[in-house]
Amino acid sequence: MNAIATVEPLVRARNVHKSFDQLEVLKGIDLDVTPGEVVVILGPSGSGKSTFLRCINHLETINRGSIEVDGEQIGYRLRKNRLEKLSNNQIAVQRRKIGMVFQQFNLYPHMTVLQNIIEAPCGIHGESRKAATENAMRLLERVGLAAKADSYPRHLSGGQQQRVAIARALAIKPKLMLFDEPTSALDPELVGEVLSTMRDLADQGLTMIVVTHEIGFAREAADRVVFMDGGHIIEQGKPEDVLGNPQHPRTRSFLSRFI
Ligand SMILES: Nc1ncnc2c1ncn2[C@@H]1O[C@H](COP(=O)(O)OP(=O)(O)OP(=O)(O)O)[C@@H](O)[C@H]1O
Ligand SMILES: [Mg+2]
User: Fold this and answer.
1) Is 49 close to ligand 1, i.e. is its CB under 6 Å away?
2) Ranges of the chain whose pLDDT falls below 70
3) 45 CB within 6 A, ligand 1
4) pLDDT tens for each residue of 4-58
5) Which of 18-53 are b and which e, b meaning 16 or more Cβ less than 10 Å from the residue's Cβ?
6) Is the distance from CB of 66 to CB of 13 less than 8 angstroms?
7) Ligand 1 pocket, 25 CB below 6 A?
C-alpha cells in the first residue's frame, strides 16, 4: 500500500474578504493551491478575480481572513497571538516569492530587454550583474527571445513584450506566478505564442494562478478551474468537469458565451 503524502499548500487563502468603501468585492474566498498546481480562475467582469490576485501579492490589503504563501501570512506576522503589519521591506521580501504578469506588460521603455529583466534582481535584490545576466539569458531562451536581449521594447511585438514580461517576473525566481489576463491586450494572432510559453512553464512544474478568458488554455493546461462570481467561488474542479459538465447555473451561463 502506498503511503499518501500530505503536501502543504503553497497558497492557503481562508475566508478572504475585501471591500472598497461600501463595495464588498471578495466575500469569503477559500482556496488552497498545492506546489506545481496550475489553477485557472474564470468569471465575469467585476467578479473580483483581479482583486483576489492583487490580495495574494499584497497589492491590496484584505479586510478579513488570511492569505499564506509558502507558510507565511502575506503582509502580517503573528506575534504574541496578535497580527502585526509587516514593514514595506518585509513585504518586499515576501513578494520575492511571487511573480506577477499583468494585461499591460509595463516594460521600461528606455531599457533594453536584458536591462528590464535584470533590473529587479540587481537593483532590488542585490544579485551580481553577472549572475543576473546569465539567469536572464537562460530565461530569454526559455521564452524564445534570446536574440532580442539588446532590443528595446518598442521594437518588439506585443506578444514578444509579454514574453519578456514573463521572463522579468521569473527573474526573481518566484515560487508562485500570478497571471492576470496576460493575453487580453494582444492582437489575436499573438495570443498563441504567449499561451504556449505559459503552457511550457506549467509543464515545467511552476505553480501558477491564471486569470484568463482563454478556455482552451484552461482545458489543456489547468489542473483545476475555479469559477468566481460576485466575490464568491461558485464552483471548482478538474477542467473536464467544470468546463465540460458545469453544475451551477451561473457557471453554465458564463460558459455558454464561449461556445
Ligand atoms: N481600487 C479600487 N477601488 C474601488 N473599486 C475597485 C478597485 N479595484 C476594483 N474595484 C471594484 O471591485 C470590483 C471587482 O473588480 P476586479 O477588478 O477584481 O474584477 P475582475 O473580476 O478582475 O473583472 P474583469 O474581468 O473586468 O477584469 C469591481 O466592481 C471594481 O470596480
Ligand atoms: Mg480583472
Assistant:
1) yes
2) 1-5
3) yes
4) 667 899 999 999 999 999 999 999 999 999 999 999 999 999 999 999 999 999 9
5) beeeeeebbbebebebeeebbbbbbbeeebbbbbbb
6) yes
7) yes
Report the amino acid identity of residue 150.
D
Based on DSSP, count helices (H) and strands (E) in the chain, helices before strands: 9, 12
- For residue 183, the CA-to-ligand 2 centroid distance in Å is 12
Q: Which ligand is nearest to the CA of 46?
A: 1
Q: Which amino acid is at 224?
A: R
Cell digits of residue 179? 497571471
pLDDT at 3 (0 to 100): 60
Which residue, by CA, sits nearest to atom 6 of ligand 1?
20
Q: What is this structure's pTM?
A: 0.94
Best probe residue, ligand 1, of 21, 47, 54 (max atoms within 8 Å of C-beta): 47
Q: Is the CB of 43 under 6 A from ligand 1?
A: yes
Is the C-beta atom of 182 inside 6 A of ligand 1? no
The Cα 47–Cα 243 span in angstroms is 18
pLDDT (0 to 100) of residue 129:
95
Look at residue 125 in the predicted model and tell me its pLDDT: 74
72-90 in b/e form (b: 16+ CB < 10 A) is: eebbbeeeeeeeeebeeee
Q: 453554465: which residue's cell?
A: 252
160 backbone φψ class: left, alpha, beta (φ>0; ψ -120 to 50): alpha
